[in-house]
Amino acid sequence: MLLLFGPVNDPVQFFQRHWDKMCDDFLYHSGSLILPPIVLQCLVLFDLDRILHESDKNIRLFGLYYPTPDGETVADDINRHYENRTVSSIVNDKLTYDPIEMRTRFESNFRRLRPRQRALVQRVVRAVEEKQPLCAFVDAPAGTGKVFCIETILAGIGSRNGIGLAVASSGIAATLLTGGRTFHSRFRAPLKPDNTRPFNIPKQGDLAELIRRADLIVWDEAPMSNKFHLKALDITLRDPCNSNLPFGGKVLLLFGDFRQVLPVVKHGSRAQQIDVSIKMSPLWKLFEVHCLTENMRILSLGDDPMAQMYDVFLMRIGNGDHIHFVPNEPAAVKLPHEICTDKPIRDLISWTFEDVCEHVGDADYFYARLILYATNDDAGCVNDMVLNDFPGEVRESYSVDYPASDDHELAIQHELLNSLNEFGLPPHKLQLKIGAPVMLLRNLSPKQGLCNGTRLILKKIVDDDLLEVTIMRTSKTTLIPKIDLTSDGETTGFKWNRRQFPIRLAFAATINKSQGQTISRVGVWLRKPVFAHDQLYVALSRVGHPNNIRVVLPDKKFITKNVVYYELLQ
Ligand SMILES: Nc1ncnc2c1ncn2[C@@H]1O[C@H](COP(=O)(O)OP(=O)(O)OP(=O)(O)O)[C@@H](O)[C@H]1O
């Protein structure tokens, strides 16, 4: 992580000083065998190289080389021996599951599938068994069992010793899938989409081998991605698969909901936003569409009429079915008074974070609670208010800000940079308290579940450059270093860096950040109304029952705006 994101000025010296602290695993596995330091160094370098490859980097880029010419081969041989591998490590990683356990999971889930879920799973498993190409899109509104179906399909493939690659457009969604990776990291896709070039995957490399051997590719939250990425994936898969069929003849399964956040087009018009949707891709016509319609979260509540009514209401919000809401105001919607209040934000904070002082550091408590707002202007304000009431001493971390170029004229503008509070960057003056929730702002290690949007609990400030945190969803403890985050330079006209912990407080977050997260108690602060497609639906659908949500609106009639791009929902 330090090499990828951190301020390690001299990686070679850093390695020489610390390599011996990184070889505990190898010493443990070597048992009675004594490995000389030079071999241990090779093993550490080999492991580093493997980790860097996940981010499309390698040790040589950091000036690190094996101490002997055959170091890499020696390390690979030893690793293969320990792990009993016969194929490349990247493929091996995908084959480490137990097929018997997979069969048990598949059979247990399969019995519970609802009719539409079952039809989908059977269709996919049959295509894989018969090696038939398949392109399918699964329209899955919130709670209809998308993750449940994906996991069932992956278990079915795993039970036959097959390989299923699970990717997602966002880091958060990737962490919910077994072996999930972001689409960008798995396929080495550039952030700026280009539909004319394949992704950078050499045909003879490990990744190409993995793609060739994969029986299935599942892509969750596909509607959040740009149509050019779909096209580039098509071109990319044909080469390693030696096939001219679309997507190399693979079984490709896209999951998602067009009622959710769309691909980002900065300052884009409605037409531009719609145009980049995968639905506008010429490839879209190849996809057969399956619909999951039963909200399993609501079904699990039993025969609860309020939950059922809330489900119907949510679908109307998502589909922009406003006709009966506010006559003559197509973008306006009157929210039910049961979920609304015009009381001050302080009341919303007390309701959402009830008895917060008794839950300092309580991961389950904070995982279940979040306040959402629509615009970035409101960022910080709610977080600061809650932090004020939160017990404990305020700890401050100041960033070091500097222009990305060496231009001396720019170099004197530190104070100006310190004063900027750009979206996606942590603040210059980061105020924290031990036991408070924070949110990660970068995909540090999707494999460890450290993604942009991952919520954490701050456990300890180890020193000025390191935080000890607990990942809320898994309760695992990990370390977060200070890293260099680059601003896109939109405000300043030039790019600049901020060296800071890549986090923000997470009592409150934007609606967009909450996508894909199930939260038990949600406060929505709509001081300013939503501005993007189906943001209101995303906010309201985080919960399955009206008792678990409170919306603060400035309008006493509880009328607010709902933005829906109907073209994408047809
Ligand atoms: N057929 C099923 N039988 C029993 N439980 C199910 C079934 N399908 C889904 N569930 C359960 O319903 C809940 C919601 O399912 P899941 O998380 O898969 O939905 P989702 O569509 O991914 O939701 P979201 O997009 O809101 O995160 C989960 O607790 C899941 O285990």
Automatic annotation (TrEMBL):
<keyword id="KW-0547">Nucleotide-binding</keyword>
<keyword id="KW-0227">DNA damage</keyword>
<protein>
    <recommendedName>
        <fullName>ATP-dependent DNA helicase</fullName>
        <ecNumber>5.6.2.3</ecNumber>
    </recommendedName>
</protein>
<keyword id="KW-0067">ATP-binding</keyword>
<dbReference type="Pfam" id="PF05970">
    <property type="entry name" value="PIF1"/>
</dbReference>
<comment type="similarity">
    <text>Belongs to the helicase family.</text>
</comment>
<keyword id="KW-0233">DNA recombination</keyword>
<dbReference type="GO" id="GO:0043139">
    <property type="term" value="F:5'-3' DNA helicase activity"/>
</dbReference>
<dbReference type="GO" id="GO:0016887">
    <property type="term" value="F:ATP hydrolysis activity"/>
</dbReference>
<keyword id="KW-0347">Helicase</keyword>
<feature type="domain" description="DNA helicase Pif1-like 2B">
    <location>
        <begin position="415"/>
        <end position="458"/>
    </location>
</feature>
<dbReference type="Pfam" id="PF21530">
    <property type="entry name" value="Pif1_2B_dom"/>
</dbReference>
<dbReference type="InterPro" id="IPR027417">
    <property type="entry name" value="P-loop_NTPase"/>
</dbReference>
<feature type="domain" description="DNA helicase Pif1-like DEAD-box helicase">
    <location>
        <begin position="113"/>
        <end position="321"/>
    </location>
</feature>
<dbReference type="GO" id="GO:0006310">
    <property type="term" value="P:DNA recombination"/>
</dbReference>
<dbReference type="InterPro" id="IPR010285">
    <property type="entry name" value="DNA_helicase_pif1-like_DEAD"/>
</dbReference>
<dbReference type="GO" id="GO:0000723">
    <property type="term" value="P:telomere maintenance"/>
</dbReference>
<keyword id="KW-0234">DNA repair</keyword>
<dbReference type="InterPro" id="IPR049163">
    <property type="entry name" value="Pif1-like_2B_dom"/>
</dbReference>
<keyword id="KW-0378">Hydrolase</keyword>
<dbReference type="GO" id="GO:0006281">
    <property type="term" value="P:DNA repair"/>
</dbReference>
<dbReference type="GO" id="GO:0005524">
    <property type="term" value="F:ATP binding"/>
</dbReference>
